[in-house]
Amino acid sequence: FEYTPEEIDELSKCKNSLLYFVINYCIIQTHDGRKLVKDIGGLRDFQEQILNTFNSNNLNILMASRQTGKTVTSALYILWFLIFHPEKTALCVADNFTTTKELIDKFKISLEGIPFFMKPGISVINASNVKFDSNSRLVGRTTTKKSGIGLTVNLLYVDEFAHIGEANLNDFYRAIFPTVTADPNGKIILTSTPNGKNKFWEIWKAAIDGDSRY
């Protein structure tokens, strides 16, 4: 298939503007069914801020209450990242696969909804993996010290970080973080609702205080 000049122009706009892509081309699940973001009034101001922050920073930590759209917002960012950056691997992990699958399902809903000319070829798609013909892929796993084995991870997304069991978290943290941070362009996104004083709280407080030890 050949792109039309209009399609090439839209691809360029989407690659250069994360918000343009999300607002104009991403579909999300609402209580009224699946709808384009622009058809539900666009993004809220704080959701735009989250996306811009993810795009601008390599290390991100987000503490938010439930029902703020942090998971779907993260899924939309990962979709844009993988479509417009070839040969990248995004690893999505959580304490249990049900939580991991929630993000992957939101990712798939938006992937299915984008126009044909923008949709990458898909070589693998199942419950825990989506791989494009550009060799970019999303991998879903649970948090163990072996979660990242065999992967060169360019984007690490950890959902409900504060609710991950301490035993699994420490092994996972020590094993995976050096791998991602070794890439000067590697990205880490940690999101969670609060859950007392734990590793997530320590990292979040260090970020607020400007302490880079974590």
Describe the fold and architecture.
The protein has 214 residues and is an alpha/beta fold. Helix 1 crosses helix 2 and helix 4 crosses helix 5. It has a seven-stranded mixed beta sheet, sandwiched between helices. Strands 1-2 form a two-stranded antiparallel ribbon. The chain has seven helices and nine strands. It is globular, with a radius of gyration of 17 Å. 42% of the residues lie in helices and 21% in strands.
Class computed from helices, strands and strand pairing = alpha/beta
- What proportion of the residues is helical, as a percent range? 40-55%
Runs with pLDDT <50, length 5+?
Answer: none
User: What is the number of helices?
Assistant: 7
The topology string of helices and strands comes to: HHEEHEHEHEEEEHEH
- Coarse shape: globular
Number of strands: 9
Strand fraction: 15-25%
Main pleated sheet: 7 strands, mixed
Short characterization:
42% of the residues lie in helices and 21% in strands. With 214 residues, the protein is of the alpha/beta class.
Any chance you could write out the topology, listing elements then pairs?
Elements: H1 5-16, H2 18-25, E1 27-30, E2 33-36, H3 45-56, E3 59-63, H4 70-83, E4 89-94, H5 97-113, E5 122-125, E6 129-132, E7 137-142, E8 155-159, H6 166-181, E9 187-192, H7 199-209
Parallel strand pairs: 3-9, 4-7, 4-8, 8-9
Antiparallel strand pairs: 1-2, 5-6, 6-7
Helix pairs in contact: 1-2, 3-4, 4-5
